[in-house]
Design goal:
InterPro entries: AAA+_ATPase, ABC_transporter-like_ATP-bd, ABC_transporter-like_CS, BCAA_Transport_ATP-bd_LivF, P-loop_NTPase. Keywords: Amino-acid transport, ATP-binding, Nucleotide-binding, Transport. There is one protein chain. The protein is α/β, with parallel strands linked by helices. The chain has a single domain, classed as P-loop containing nucleotide triphosphate hydrolases (Rossmann fold), CATH 3.40.50. Helix content is 32%, strand content 27%. The chain has a 6-stranded mixed sheet, sandwiched between helices. It has a 4-stranded antiparallel sheet with strand order 2-1-4-5, with helices on one face. Helix 3 runs parallel beside helix 6. The model has no long low-confidence stretch (mean pLDDT 92). It binds adenosine-5'-triphosphate. The site of adenosine-5'-triphosphate has 13 residues, from helix 1.
Length: 215
C-alpha cells in the first residue's frame, strides 16, 4: 500500500492554494508534512480525503485513482484522518464516538477492530462508558485518534495531532503513533514544525505557500 501524489493543484473559490504538489508515502512508512500556519497542510489533507475537488494532478492509493472517487469511499478503502479539531460528540460516550464511523460506513469486523484499538490505547478502554464531554482535551484527542483508527486500517492522516496537547499526553500520543508504524500502517503526520514528528517519521516533506519540497 502506498500513497502517491503527483503535480496536484487545488483552488478554493478560484484562488490557487496548492501548486504542483508531489508527495509519496511508501508501504508502512511514517511521513511528516511540515509547514507554518496557512501553508496548506489542511487543504492537502482535505484533498486526499476527497473533501475538496482537485483542479489537476494525480493521487493514487494502492493503485486506485483517488481523484475519481468521492469522499464516502475513503473509509471502505481503509483511509482515515484525525482532524485538527477533535469533533467528538459531547453527549455520546467514548465508545459510541469511536463506533460512529463503523455505523456510518457499515464497516465489517468492528468488534475485532475495537479490541485492537483498545489494546493499542488501553487507557481509553477504562473510560469507554464516560461521556466525551467529561474528558480532558488531551484525552479527547486520544479518543479522536481511536475513532480514526476504526476505518483507518491502511492509511492514517493526522492533522497537527500534537497541537494544544499538554506535554505528558503528547508523549503518550507519540508512543501510540510510533506503535502504528510497527503495525504496518501508512501514516502522514502534519505539524507546524518538526518538534514531535522528528523522532517518529521515516521521511519528511515541507510545505510553504502551497508548494511542497522533500526533505
Ligand atoms: N475555505 C477557504 N476559503 C478561502 N481560503 C481558504 C479556505 N481554506 C483555506 N484557505 C486558505 O488556504 C491556505 C492554506 O490553508 P490551510 O488551512 O490548508 O493551511 P494549514 O497549513 O493547514 O494551516 P493551519 O496550521 O493554520 O491549519 C491559507 O492561505 C488559507 O487562508
Amino acid at each position: 500500500m502506498s500513497l502517491e501524489i503527483r503535480n496536484l493543484n487545488v483552488s478554493i473559490e478560484g484562488i490557487p492554494i496548492l501548486n504542483d504538489v508531489s508527495l509519496y508515502v511508501g508501504p508502512g512508512q511514517m511521513v511528516g508534512l511540515i509547514g507554518h500556519n496557512g501553508a496548506g497542510k489542511t487543504t492537502l489533507i482535505r484533498a486526499i480525503m476527497g473533501l475538496l475537488p482537485t483542479d489537476t494532478g494525480e493521487m493514487f492509493f494502492d493503485g486506485q485513482d483517488l481523484c475519481a472517487q468521492p469522499a464516502f469511499t475513503r473509509a471502505a478503502t481503509g483511509i482515515s484522518y484525525l482532524p485538527e479539531d477533535r469533533r467528538l460528540i459531547p453527549a455520546l460516550t467514548v465508545e459510541e464516538n469511536i463506533m460512529l464511523p463503523v455505523w456510518a460506513n457499515k464497516l465489517a469486523d468492528s468488534k475485532q477492530r475495537l479490541e485492537w484499538v483498545y489494546g493499542l490505547i488501553p487507557e481509553i478502554a477504562q473510560f469507554r462508558d464516560r461521556k466525551a464531554m467529561q474528558l480532558s482535551g488531551g484525552q479527547q484527542k486520544l479518543v479522536a485518534l481511536a475513532r480514526a483508527l476504526m476505518p483507518g486500517n491502511q492509511l492514517l492522516i493526522l492533522d497537527e495531532p500534537f497541537e494544544g496537547v499538554a506535554p505528558v499526553l503528547s508523549r503518550r500520543l507519540s508512543e501510540v503513533i510510533a506503535k502504528l508504524g510497527q503495525e504496518g500502517l501508512c501514516v502522514l503526520i502534519s505539524e507546524s514544525d518538526d518538534t514531535h514528528s522528528a523522532d517518529l517519521v521515516d521521511a519528511l516533506f515541507r510545505i510553504e505557500r502551497g508548494s511542497v519540497t522533500a526533505g
